[in-house]
Design a protein that fits this description.
Four Helix Bundle (Hemerythrin (Met), subunit A); mainly alpha; 5 helices; single chain; elongated; 152 residues
């Protein structure tokens, strides 16, 4: 599996988890906690892989100012979701109305970010990086992802 296929699979899984979280009610406290824990671990692993492996390769191969713009925008979207919204959600009482609102905001941020990557960054990366480079980049995240999730 190449890096883009791997990242798209992560996006699909994250969309499903966030949709499941959004469909919960304030009475489903145990389910909400379980989902938030899983989302937190998987989101951190995914963003770490992108920031350590995929984004640097994309940026190094990039030749246009739009490539740099995509790179920095993606980093900021990670920061917004992972450093601002996710910690608020983790620290929010799952039975509260605030929880539902924060879960929805996280879902919207992640979906927007994944859509932009899939429509803009990934097609551009396919032009910039060879099949062999993408395959090699796909091997590294699998091992890194396993390590990150094991330590979560």
């Amino acid at each position: 599996m190449d890096a883009i296929q791997l990242l798209k699979a992560d996006h699909k899984e994250m969309r499903a988890l966030l949709a499941e979280l959004e469909s919960t009610t304030s009475r489903g406290i145990k389910k909400r906690r379980q989902l938030v824990t899983e989302i937190e671990a998987k989101l951190k692993a995914h963003t770490t892989i992108e920031e350590e492996l995929f984004y640097p390769a994309f940026r190094q191969a990039g030749k246009q100012s739009d490539d740099d713009k995509m790179y920095f925008e993606a980093l900021e979207e990670h920061r917004a979701a992972g450093d601002l919204v996710l910690p608020d959600l983790v620290g929010t009482d799952p039975s509260s109305e605030k929880f539902s609102g924060r879960a929805k905001v996280l879902k919207e941020l992640v979906e927007h970010h994944a859509d932009e990557e899939e429509k803009e960054m990934f097609p551009r990366a396919r032009k910039l990086l060879s099949r062999d480079e993408l395959a090699r980049l796909g091997e590294q995240p699998e091992a890194r992802n396993e390590a990150l999730l094991a330590n979560a």
